[in-house]
Amino acid sequence: MNKTLASIAASLALAAAATAAQAHEAHVAKPQGAATPAPEQKPWGIAGKPGAVKRTIDIAMADDMTFTPSVIEVREGDTVRLRLQNRGKDLHELVLGTTAEIEAHAAMMKKFPGMEHDEPWMVHVPPGKTGDMVWTFNRAGDFDFACLVKDHYELGMAGRVRVLPAADKS
User: Fold this and answer.
1) How far is CA 11 from the centre of its chain?
2) Going by C-beta distance under 8 Å and a sequence separation of 6 or more, which residues neighbour residue 37?
3) H-helix or E-strand containing 124?
4) Which of the two ends of the chain, N or C, has the fewest CB atoms closer than 10 A to its terminal CB?
């Protein structure tokens, strides 16, 4: 019985370590020259191609834990450039996702506070700098964005993307 329990405990520990390693792996920068995988469709859209950008939306990030604007509207099918201006003295980021994805990622950041991001729906912006994200919003609905650095999300650094259905062309 004790051997069985020890075996189960060891299996669970290995499974937890493997899961944590996979989650952390998605946040480590890829080596130079590594092949870039095909864009992954997410519930909130897909990485866009710079040549398809229809408009640029400027979003300011500040140390008072705000995004300005905190709500943006786009049309389903639009490819936009989100130009992120960090006006603060702290590192900020913008992470796109559903509420559930943002909250799960925030919990992961608490477990691994030194994680680095390397996903097309996440952009780190150093103090006083500007960063860009090109995204195609190909699904209608309301989606979230947030800064998951330190405790910024818990302090209210979040916003909303409202993706309106594509205009009827008939």
Assistant:
1) 31
2) none
3) strand 122-125
4) C
Q: What token pair was written down for 42?
A: 């997410």
Residue with tokens 């943006």: 72
Indicate the CATH number for domain 42-164. Answer: 2.60.40.420
- Cα torsion angle, 133, 138, 140, 141, sign: negative
Whole-number mean pLDDT of the chain?
A: 83
Both tokens assigned to 135:
């995204």
Q: Domain extents for the chain?
A: 42-164
| Measured distance CA(109)–CA(122) in Å, rounded | 13
Q: Is the bond preceding 69 in cis, omega lying within 30 degrees of 0?
A: yes
pLDDT for position 111 = 87
Q: Which amino acid is at 62?
A: A
pLDDT at 118 over 60: yes
